[in-house]
Amino acid sequence: MTTALKFYNKYSKSELVQLARMIEINEENHEPPGTSIHKLTPAARKKMAAIDQAIAWHMEDDRKIAGNPVPVCGYSGRQTNRAA
Question: Please, which residues bridge with residue 30 across strands?
Answer without folding.
Answer: 40
